[in-house]
Amino acid sequence: MNSTICFIGAGNMSRSLIGGLLASGYDKSKVWASDPNTDTTESLSQRFDIKCYSDNQQAIQQADIVVLAVKPQQLQALSKSLAPTVQNKKPLLISIAAGVRSADIDRWLGNNQAIVRSMPNTPALIQAGATGLFANPKVTSTQKADAEHILRAAGLTLWVNQENQLDAVTALSGSGPAYYFLFMEAMEAAGKQLGLDPKTAHLLTLQTAFGAAKMALESADDCATLRQQVTSPNGTTEQAIKSFESDQFSAIVSRAMHASHKRAQQLADELGEE
């Protein structure tokens, strides 16, 4: 991959992707960023020694790939402002703005644009993310590979065949870190109730979560099998699992994810309005 990449918006996600790309050996002269906040661009330029702009139009003039890394509420105005240049240059557009459908972005840009929509999650900020990707029909196989290369700098990437599946990605991995933080918060609190000091409860909770995730990633067994392997008959773990099941733990998780999924669809409708 030897494309010139311009990031519009120099926030945390752009920093993470830029850092990951450069760490993998990508040519820094081919990575640019643009943001109206000069303090932000100066900080980015000093950290990564890349070319930065305060004018988006100037920034994308020679870009092969434009990463739209602004807040969802800002994307409509940004896209419309970029439309004349984008229509002339025809770069690959990669949106990391949550909830905005590719058809709406395409309409704002003047139609017939190659657009990849992505749904990264917050662990991408430490190169441990999970990102769902969808390509509209204008995206070539080479452009798909380029988009995957860029987002893979922040962690795992997976393609979906239908764009509405990104709403499910949002409910699972997009919102998912908060679910785990909530569960860990509850475990830590219960540990303190059982007599552990706060530091011990905190460290044991974090290491247990890390170890369980690492085991699941490295094992050929599925999560159900791994759970069964540590649940001895009449043992302590079995009692905890029975308590979870009596409180309909699986149904609680399912209802929560369906609520997140429904809100993702509602936001897409709201953000796509003219």
Give short descriptive properties of this protein:
274 residues; alpha/beta; Rossmann fold; ProC C-terminal domain-like fold; 2 domains; 8-stranded mixed β-sheet; 12 helices; 8 strands
Largest beta-sheet characterization: 8 strands, mixed
Number of distinct beta strands? 8
pLDDT average, as an integer? 94
User: In order across it, which strands form the biggest sheet?
Assistant: 3-2-1-4-5-6-7-8
**Name of the CATH first level of the largest domain:** Alpha Beta
Order of helices and strands: EHEHEHEHEHEEHEHHHHHH
Description:
By secondary structure, the protein is α/β, with parallel strands linked by helices. The chain folds into two domains: 5-166, Rossmann fold (3-Layer(aba) Sandwich); 176-268, ProC C-terminal domain-like fold (Orthogonal Bundle), CATH 1.10.3730. Helix content is 56%, strand content 13%. It is built from twelve helices and eight strands. The protein has helices at residues 12-23, 38-48, 56-60, 72-89, 102-108, 141-151, 165-174, 176-193, 198-218, 223-229, 236-246, 249-271, and strands at 5-8, 31-34, 51-53, 65-68, 92-95, 115-119, 129-135, 155-159. The protein has an eight-stranded mixed β-sheet, sandwiched between helices. Helix 4 links the parallel strand 4 (65-68) and strand 5. It is elongated, with a radius of gyration of 22 Å.
